Amino acid sequence: MKVILQRDIPKVGKGGDVVIVADGYARNYLFPRKFAVSATGGALKEHTARAEREKSKGASLLHGAQLDAAKLEDASLIIMSKTGSAGKLYGAITAQDLADMIAKEKGVTVDKRRIGLADPIKSLGEYKVSVRLHTDVSVNVSVLVTTEEDLAKRKAAEVVAAAKAAEEAAKAPAPTPVAEVEEEVAAEEDAE
């Protein structure tokens, strides 16, 4: 007998599958417990319509997750925290804190259970955290846990590095224009 399973049944199939089972098994076990319905007429049409709706909904969810992944690609979050001695935080940074920070800074709503943080963050430093937006889409986010003083030092170091790079660029000889290089190459070819 052909039946549509309403839920997962071990060794038979998953919910929504159309399977063939013994007549007695269907009548005596599956139908009374509402684990399956007969795959005839209207039930089969309803099943195919539901499958199409779920497929289109799944495609739209995947597309939305890919758009959110583009927003979070190479994202870095800076979390300011107070510390005690030896760089230990007064409070831990949890997956919920990261979900709130992502929603606030990037505009992407993420469930805290989809953030791959095994244990709460309890010390200063930089961490890579996996964020699963869909079963097929996940993104790594960089999280920097720092204090205000440390952040000020980092920004000052970045300014100094940018100034040195600009100074070295000014000292470097100016590149020759392309036309002059082409004329030199042509002159060398003519000389040969």
Give the SSE layout:
Blueprint: E1 2-5, E2 18-20, H1 23-30, E3 36-38, H2 41-72, E4 76-80, E5 88-93, H3 95-106, E6 115-116, E7 121-123, E8 125-134, E9 137-146, H4 148-171, H5 178-191
Parallel strand pairs: 4-9
Antiparallel strand pairs: 1-2, 1-3, 5-7, 6-8, 8-9
Structural notes for this entry:
The chain is an alpha+beta fold and 192 residues long. It is built from 5 helices and 9 strands. It has helices spanning 23-30, 41-72, 95-106, 148-171, 178-191, and strands at residues 2-5, 18-20, 36-38, 76-80, 88-93, 115-116, 121-123, 125-134, 137-146. The strands form 3 sheets. It has a 4-stranded mixed beta sheet with strand order 4-9-8-6. A 3-stranded antiparallel beta sheet has the order 2-1-3, with helices on one face. The radius of gyration is 31 Å and the shape is flat. The chain starts with a strand and ends with a helix.
Quick structural overview:
The chain is of the alpha+beta class.
User: If you average the pLDDT, what whole number results?
Assistant: 85
Structure annotation, total helices? 5
Helicity level:
40-55%
Overall number of strands: 9
Low-confidence stretches: none
What structural class do the secondary elements suggest?
A: alpha+beta
Q: How far is the first residue's CA from the last residue's CA?
A: 89 Å
SSE ordering: EEHEHEEHEEEEHH
How much of the sequence is in beta strands? 15-25%
Q: If strands are numbered along the chain, what order do they take across the biggest sheet?
A: 4-9-8-6
Shape: flat
